[in-house]
Design brief:
3 helices, about 40% helix, about 25% strand, globular, 3 strands
């Protein structure tokens, strides 16, 4: 069952829209982290990789698919938190380009 942790927060959604995400903001249609991850990978060629660490935390990294290079890494307590933080970092990378 999906929980609120599985959705992008409002600021991330707005930032993704500014980068060209095709959906129109709708309060009755929450935006899943999975959808954001898929769009970033397919349209912006940035993959957000999530790995579980030995001590139970999760690590994310942003991979530029064209250059096969990793960027910004971070850790979080859950998969959803790591994915959410990875999406935010990917948005920041795209805004800086």
């Amino acid at each position: 069952m999906l929980t609120e942790k599985d959705y992008c927060d409002y600021d991330t959604y707005v930032a993704l829209e500014e980068l060209g995400y095709p959906e129109v903001m709708a309060f009755n249609k929450p935006f899943l982290l999975y959808e954001a991850q898929k769009w970033l990978r397919e349209e912006k060629l940035l993959h957000i990789a999530i790995d579980k660490l030995l001590y139970g935390a999760y690590e994310f990294s942003i991979v530029d698919i064209l250059n096969y290079s990793g960027e910004k890494n971070g850790t979080a307590n859950s998969y959803e938190e790591a994915l959410s933080e990875g999406i935010k970092e990917a948005v920041n990378i795209l805004k800086d380009k």
